[in-house]
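Following the same procedure, sequence and fold were stored together, as reproduced here:

>
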Amino acid sequence: MLFGDKNYNYYGRYLREKYEGHRVFKVIVDGGFTCPNRDGSKGYGGCTYCNVDSFTPELSRSLPSLKDQVQQGMERARNMYRADKFIIYFQPNTNTYAPAHYLKMMYDEALSVNTEDIVGLSVGTRPDCIDAEKAALLESYTDRFDVDIEMGMESIYDETLAKINRGCTHAELETALALFENSKVEVCVHTIFGFPWETREMMLKYADVINQYRQIKYVKFHHLHIVEGSIMGVLYKREPFKLFSLEEYADFLSELLPRVRQDVIIQRLFGLSDLDLLIAPNWGMKKSEMLYRIEQEFLRRDVVQGSALQAELSEA
């Protein structure tokens, strides 16, 4: 197969090859940041789909010190997954939402723990919370670590971004992406599929935007899921709306992946929330089984990432 044992350019294979067989694990740390549409800078309440606890491990929520979070995260990864190399991942909330000198202090502290075992720094943020100074700060780490910035694209449509109280526009994503053109900092974008007012054809056009920007190296594809503590959760309980079933989502991805250029590395095909927070859709199976079902659909239909683009080139 073009991508080893799978039909798409998946993150696990990329890590194994890049780090010569080492077991590399992301250690999630919580820097105590907030978001501009939570603290009143742009709005209150956050994005309508968001409850930050739904994607923050209990371990990082309960530890005040960055060093403690890194040390215990590494220990857990070694014991449970036999990891021996680590990427420090600032995930919860907006991890560039502070002055650059403060960010440097936070990143330096997290990277100072067992530095010889750390291979990367990954920073999750919003497109409207990154500027040239902060981009230069991230660039300054690239001589010692592999650095990536993960930006929430969520949707390519401003109407959707407004409906979900995103607090930023697609143009702001384009501006942020321009900061990393010809940069050593690698870019990951995060998308959400399944907003009930977006049609299938609208969602398939996300691939066109991803393909347009060569600085996008990674993507995380998520289906919309509804969690407790979110505004959308309240609305869904009042009047449930259509969400993807697993079969429908696998069918959608089977049409999307051939449209995504082959060099883009897929970090995730779907999102997960803790079951105690998840309202819907509950597909009733473990992550490994969900992944197996989706990948079996790819095999059944001979889905290959980028194949539609290659066919277009052949016809040209």
About this structure: Confidence is low (pLDDT under 50) at residues 54-61. The first strand starts at residue 24 and ends at 29. The CA atoms of residues 38 and 46 lie 5 Å apart. The radius of gyration is 19 Å.
